[in-house]
Amino acid sequence: MSTLAAILGRILLAAIFVISGINKLLDPAATAQILESVSLPANFAQGVGIFEVAAGLLLAIGLMTRLVSIVLAGFTLLTIFFFHNQWGDPVQVSAALKNLAITGGLLLIFAYGQMRGSYDHIRSEKRLHDANLRAAHAEGVAEGATQAPRPVVVERHEPTIVDRGLDHDGDGRIG
Fold first, then answer.
1. Is the separation of the CB atoms in 69 and 110 below 8 Å?
2. How many angstroms separate the CA atoms of 34 and 6, rounded?
3. What is this structure's pTM?
4. 113: which residues sit within 8 A by CB, 6+ positions away?
């Protein structure tokens, strides 16, 4: 049950960034205007949209989970610093607290991001399995090299002469 909750939580957090990024890509002029209002370059608008969509999709499928979650956490904290810093405005405080909660969720993903249900977990399990196989093979090779060779026993059989009873007179001739 906890695995399902982790997968669902990761997908829901990722949805925030994917939807926000798509909105930025669909209306880059509005995003550029918001960026200019806080003295950031307007040409960041499309790049921010692409970043949010790409990072959100990577987070949703669980690929590079730890890296993506920590980068998104930093990105979310920067939005508090640049956009939601008017502590006298209840709307801005609410938005800052929402982003703070998102950052907390992203930090949890950073801490536990490689659990079952993520692509990263599947890759690490495969690496572990391959490493175990290599170790077992190396151990078998080393064990074979360190053991003293076993003595080889060869049984010798002397040829037996079969008397067929055909030489009755003892002169060596049959008949």
1. yes
2. 33
3. 0.69
4. 10, 62, 65, 66, 69, 120
Query: CA 12, 95, 32 angle in degrees (round to 5)?
Result: 90
Q: Rounded CA gap, 5 and 23, in Å?
A: 27
Distance CA 11, CA 65 (A): 11
Q: Give the residue, 131 or 150, on which the prediction is more confident.
A: 131
Cα angle 89, 44, 73 (rounded to 5 degrees) comes to 60
Cα angle: 4, vertex 5, 6; to 5 degrees: 90
d(CA 113, CA 64): 9
27-31, 84-88, 159-163: range with lowest mean pLDDT: 159-163
Mean pLDDT of 55-67: 93
Contact between residue 106 and residue 13 where contact means Cβ atoms under 8 Å apart: yes
| Cα torsion angle, 135, 138, 144, 145, sign | negative
Classify the phi-psi angles of 39: left when phi > 0, otherwise alpha if psi is within -120 to 50, otherwise beta.
left
| Higher per-residue pLDDT: 96 or 150 | 96
On whether the CB atoms of residues 65 and 113 are closer than 8 A, the answer is yes
- DSSP 8-state class, residue 162: P
What are the extents of the domains in the chain?
2-121
